[in-house]
What does this fold into?
Amino acid sequence: MLKIDQPMHIKPQILANLEGEKSWRLKDYVARGGYAALRKILREKTPPEKIIAELKESALRGRGGAGFPTGLKWSFMPKQYAGEKYLVCNSDEGEPGTFKDRDILRYNPHMVIEGMAIAAYAMGTARGYNYIHGEVWDVYLRFEEALDEARAGGFLGQKILGSDFSFELFAHHGYGAYICGEETGLLESIEGKKGQPRYKPPFPASFGLYGKPTTINNTETFAAVPWIIMNGGAKYLEVGKPNNGGTKIFSVSGHVNRPGVYEIPMGTPFARLLEMCGGMRGGRKLKACIPGGSSMPVLPGDVMMQCDMDYDSIAKAGSMLGSGAVIIMDETTCMVKALQRLSYFYFEESCGQCTPCREGTGWLYRVVHRIEHGEGRPEDLDLLTSVSDNIAGRTICALGDAAALPVKSFVKHFRPEFEYHIENKKCLVPVDVQRAGSRIYVEHAAC
Amino acid sequence: MLSQDALKRIDREIAKYPPEHKQSAVMASLAIAQEETGWLSNDTMEFVASYLGMPAIAVFEVATFYNMYDLAPVGKYKITVCTNLPCALSGGYDAAEYVQHKLGIGFNETTPDGKYTLKEGECMGACGDAPVLLVNNTRMCSWMTPEQIDKLLAELK
Ligand SMILES: Cc1cc2nc3c(=O)[nH]c(=O)nc-3n(C[C@H](O)[C@H](O)[C@H](O)COP(=O)(O)O)c2cc1C
Ligand code: SF4
Ligand code: FES
It folds into this structure.
């Protein structure tokens, strides 16, 4: 077995002190200081504006992919509104490479519940839903259990902890559609329809679930809230770096010795994260990395080695931090094959509403597929770029861009490899080398 | 059509939503129905539609949109292997091939004895545990080396 001498986290806020067997239980959460933030605001009757101001100061940015400032988003909710308003948590985690929300919900579900209750208090919402990814049934069941515990403990429901504040929260289980991670697709899905994204504007803050004002945040975003309330926005910001507050949970997958979730301060060097993951599998060289989930542009290994893990550094290097899913590829990776699998995914998951996305994703996949299968044509690389350009920015939701960005970046950074494929009708990296690089069995047996 | 137990579970789902939005429970209702009947026939979908007071076509739309509903019979055990890129980098294809070899079927096929159906899946949000596979939509299996796959198949009788 690998020797584990590297920590899994640095200054963790969300995945801290979860070593206990039953870390998800209410009792354990309270023993670690859980629900103190909710108690505090209810006891002190903190004005909602003050909570939102605290979040703005913290520079917490949405952890679901777009990195939108959370405090600002919360301030968009209408304050004086007669009818029902809704709060929704996005735990649909389907972006390839992302598996952090699963761990947050498995090991620390009450932190998400507490974060949502605080959000509901700040925005005056009485009802919320947590939309949980279809494939993680055990996580859904555990969250349901946590909800029961929270209700019984007086942390959810009518007159929470004896105050005037009431908030009901329910879990909604997805059933296998990546597009429901897109916030308006998700709302349609909760309404019991196909998860097809809506035109924006109107934005959910004015027309959301059942047509009512709604705020949607990612699981990790809500989980960050109790810490900020307890320690203050300024402290949170200090943990990260300016404009990139706090810690971030990275999901590291691919060719490393220890794939897994790592919570580290924003701005931690990528090289440090790689070290925490036990380094490259088999001591091989880093060829490429997608730093923010499959929808973000790929970066060459040497560029990546110079990056820090925060929104601004990754953007400067030409990609995006996205959901914090770090996909590591070593020199045994065939970039054409890798792109082919991703392109298939977007083709398969396009909801089909917009012509550029519905037709374009299929087109991209077919062209990459034919290059991979030795039938590529010299003009194909320009074709890929032009099809990508004609999808991006011309669709209802960002899945179109998500399909286009990987294609453009793979071709841009690894063009010679694509050209070799077209000319020689085979991979630059021999197939047996690729297979050996990805097969984990051999190495597991050896260590 | 569905057992009392299933209807009770569906009622619990309906109660999560405002009374005028019973339709919100359609996804859960279909999942519960599928668990009980193995797959979603037109009759089952029509039953769910009338139970929730929605048009049958709207139920059908939902059932066809989400990947985990089965609109045709599947084996007693449906095994879905993730082959998306992060998993593929850590043995996703090797695991899929090994299962194919053991069962003697390809993706979207069912063994002649009706016991196993094999599907290719998209990211399940568990890439750190690759290779991963899902049994009957509910049971996630992590780190599926050949020995683990052997053990699992021996258990799924
Ligand atoms: C195709 C697509 C898939 C998405 N998938 C997810 C997802 O799985 N989880 C998530 O939190 N956000 C996802 N998003 C982003 C959401 O639309 C939304 O921006 C986010 O949930 C807002 O929460 P945040 O501000 O806390 O990040 C996706 C967006 C798109 C376009
Ligand atoms: S961009 Fe694609 S996924 Fe998004 S709404 Fe249009 S067709 Fe659907
Ligand atoms: S890629 Fe297989 S679970 Fe994410």
Notes: Chain B has two domains: 4-65, 77-156.
